[in-house]
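Pasting two entries for a bug report.
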Amino acid sequence: MTGVVIRSRAKWYEEGEKLSIYFENLEKRNFTNKSILELETNDGETIKDQTKILNEVKYIYQNLYENKNMTDDNKNLPELLTHCLFRKLTDLEKEGFEGQITQEEIMTTIKQKRIIMG
């Protein structure tokens, strides 16, 4: 729920929409407690302008999971994984996984869990 409220606040701020009286009062009450008054960027710049802070936070989250931030050690990871040999199932193992689960298999699993769980 908190994420929805934060995103809606950002939308209101960006688009200049007027808040309802209820939300405006909430904003006034929580402004000092929940506002980012100052933010240091990755280049060491300190920003205090709310629009710039909002844009910086937006930029950080948009680029959070991109591959461009990978370290040199991890850059070759996709290539390394293509050369890995993963063990494949044998034909006998494949056959064992085919079909419906039997009542006997279910009971065996439950009994094993009881032994482990004690």
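Entry 2 (this is the one that rendered wrong in the viewer):
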Amino acid sequence: MKSKKNIKIAISIVSLVILMFTVGCSNVNGNSNDKQSTVASDNSKNKASNQSSSEVSTSKGDLNGKVAKIDGNNITIIKTNEKKGSVSMPKKGSAAATQNMTTFQVSNDTAVTVRTSANKGMDNKDAAGTISDIKEDSMLMVWGKKDGDVFKATKVLVYVFK
């Protein structure tokens, strides 16, 4: 009698462990709006890129992210988060993205460079750009200074992926 009861308990425990594992895996693979997309950053490969005469600093920008909204000279981006060699960013429209937004201002004095990246980031070409090259959903690196409550961009690097 006792061994049958022990077997039932063991089967129940194993079933619970399998169920918990299955539920855990489905949550990891799920893609809700509040989940973050993660991309491993391999900047060491990109630093040896082909650059044209419009040299752009290889240092990380003061602001980095994806353009969420353009309102005249005010550009709102969803900032990227960098941890342990990987870069992540909340999905556009999610609650986390709303909390991770910041706005900066461009002017006619803002230097814009367009970096066309091909072959999974192995081949990069820089070209002089204009403010009109900054479009919604573009990835940006921004350098500048805070002037009161406003961040004024002095240099913007726009990424174009092919």
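Dev reply: Rendering is fixed now. As a check, the viewer should reflect this: Residues 50-161 form one domain.
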